[in-house]
Amino acid sequence: MIQFDKVTKRYPGSDEILKNISFNIDAGEFVFLTGHSGAGKSTLLKLIAATERPTSGTVLIANQNVSQLKPSAIPFLRRRFGLIFQDHKLLYDRNCFENVILPLHINGISGQEAAKRVRAALDKVGLLHKEKAMPITLSGGEQQRLAIARAVVSRPSILLADEPTGNLDASYAADIMAIFYAFNQVGVTVIMSTHDALGMSTAQNRVLHINQGSLSEPLLNTSNFNQESSSIERFTS
Amino acid sequence: MSNWLNQHIQTLKLVLKRMQANTLSTFMICLVIGVAMCLPSLFYLAVDNLSKLTDHIQKDTEISLFLNVEAGAGAIKTIERQLAQNEEIERFHLVTKEEAWKQLQLKSQSNQDVNDAVSQLGKNPLPDAFFIQAKSADPDSLIQLKDTLQNLPNVELALLNTEWVKRLSSLLSLGKKLISMIAGLLAIVLLVIIGNTVRMQILTQKDEIEVSNLIGATSSFIRMPFLYAGALYGLFGGLMAVLMLIGIIHVFNLSMSQIAHLYSNDFSLSLFNLQLFLAVIIIAVCIGWAGSYIAVSRAIASYKIN
């Protein structure tokens, strides 16, 4: 699904943020991306979401080489992803319903079908009763849940979350994690960056750790085990 | 197809809703566009109407034919016959020296100095005269006609005053050139104003562009509402310009009719120049669209990945 091969990223006038990184993420995995602030977690996620291009090396998303994509093809690649940001990036000039419907409009879905899917997404994150509310009136945890609803409404196969629980207290964070696990259970690949992996991960999760631009995989588990378990979960759910 | 149409309708609704939410600033922008469109249009109307007026005046141009003071009734008859036979002459009338003398005395009564001068003359110094209206209004053929009339026997002087008509028409053509220059300059101003307005709007909707871009919106999708906004600013601005034009022309005609009455002339600016109004609106819409296209394309380019 996502393949990094000897990927290096350097911004003009800075050191290498990511050095020679190679890894492989299969469909249906739940991957934690850990490391200190500034270690390069966000940059790695940006490379996956094709908002940045690698300085060298190749990034393959669903067998498409991101570096070789035409600019006009990139929007269509991005529609495979649901993006969740630490600062939510909600639009505060419109209500919850209108925030969530935006990806559907971008995909050319409107009318009854769109409304149905928006309500389904809001229901999944427990915000169905707030569809008319403005995002500014929601609590931090609710705003993040709204951002998740927006990310999943177009049914992406990959969820990318950049420190989604970074600004939340423990109980809200647990809510958010439960939602991510639920999506992973139905086969969505989840890649989530966090600086607090120990508090989040369970034995089933694969962890990619970035330290000063280099990647390592701490032995919390093996990826084989993870794949097996997630496929079993998918089967049973 | 219906999906495509639906998307456009949705966008249009969104844009109108936003404009409604910012009524005052929308109104100001439209006002600026309206005034900028109004100025060259007004200038155009003025020149257009003046050139119509000069056509009118040129038609009224007379050739005055003054006979020798000694010319008798027989000579007058001969000339009258010749004028009647001339194909180029529309109509003419004779003012005899006695009639002219009476008219002069009558008119000079109101002015003491002229009256004194006239009464001191004692005898009638005026010649018999024909006033001739040609069929053609073209200055060159008028001059030709004047020359043939000059050569008739017993004609002292044939008089044609086309010089000022010529000057007026050359001034008018200069005016027309000036309009196109002013219109060109104002078009650039409009492009900048609308482009800048849309740029300001982009600043307030930066988040929306960024988020849309991140979740896979194509450039044309992001561009669409801004293009609609620009075109709508143009449309409303153009309509405002037309309203202003109608208002100005109306006020102008009211005072003009008083002046025209004094000159016993039936002159007024033609009000419903539908072609001009349509042109104003269409040009405003095009400029609005182009201005926002430039602005939003620049904004999108800044989100291109590197």
UniProtKB/TrEMBL annotation, chain A:
Q: Name one GO cellular component term.
A: plasma membrane
Source organism of the structure = Methylotenera oryzisoli
User: What's a single GO MF annotation on this record?
Assistant: ATP hydrolysis activity
rRNA processing found in the keyword field: no
Gene of origin?
Answer: ftsE
Q: Which family does it belong to?
A: Belongs to the ABC transporter superfamily.
Gene3D superfamilies noted in UniProt? P-loop containing nucleotide triphosphate hydrolases
The protein's topology relative to the membrane is: Peripheral membrane protein
Give the protein's biological function.
Part of the ABC transporter FtsEX involved in cellular division. Important for assembly or stability of the septal ring.
Q: Which UniProt keywords apply?
A: Amino-acid transport, ATP-binding, Cell cycle, Cell division, Cell membrane, Membrane, Nucleotide-binding, Translocase, Transport
For the keyword Kinase, the answer is no
User: Which InterPro entries does the record associate with it?
Assistant: AAA+_ATPase, ABC_transporter-like_ATP-bd, ABC_transporter-like_CS, ABC_transpr_LolD-like, Cell_div_FtsE, P-loop_NTPase
GO terms (BP aspect):
amino acid transport; cell division
Q: Where in the cell is it found?
A: Cell inner membrane; Cell membrane
Give the protein's recorded name.
Cell division ATP-binding protein FtsE
Q: SMART domains from the xrefs?
A: AAA
Automatic annotation (TrEMBL), chain B:
Q: What is its main location?
A: membrane
Q: Which GO terms describe its biological process?
A: cell division
The transmembrane residues are 21-46, 178-198, 226-252, 272-296
Q: Is Kinase included in the keywords of this UniProt record?
A: no
- Organism superkingdom: Bacteria
* Domain ABC3 transporter permease C-terminal span(s) in chain numbering: 181-300
Swiss-Prot/TrEMBL keywords: Cell cycle, Cell division, Cell inner membrane, Cell membrane, Membrane, Transmembrane, Transmembrane helix
* Pfam families in the record: FtsX (PF02687), FtsX_ECD (PF18075)
User: Would the keyword Cell inner membrane turn up in this protein's UniProt record?
Assistant: yes
Record-level GO cellular component terms = cell division site; plasma membrane
Which Gene3D superfamilies is this protein grouped with?
A: 3.30.70.3040
Q: Where in the cell is it found?
A: Cell inner membrane
Q: Which InterPro entries match?
A: ABC3_permease_C (IPR003838), FtsX (IPR004513), FtsX_ECD (IPR040690), FtsX_proteobact-type (IPR047590)
Q: How does it sit in the membrane?
A: Multi-pass membrane protein
Can you tell me which family this protein belongs to?
Belongs to the ABC-4 integral membrane protein family. FtsX subfamily.
Query: What does the protein in this record do?
Result: Part of the ABC transporter FtsEX involved in cellular division.
Protein name in the entry = Cell division protein FtsX
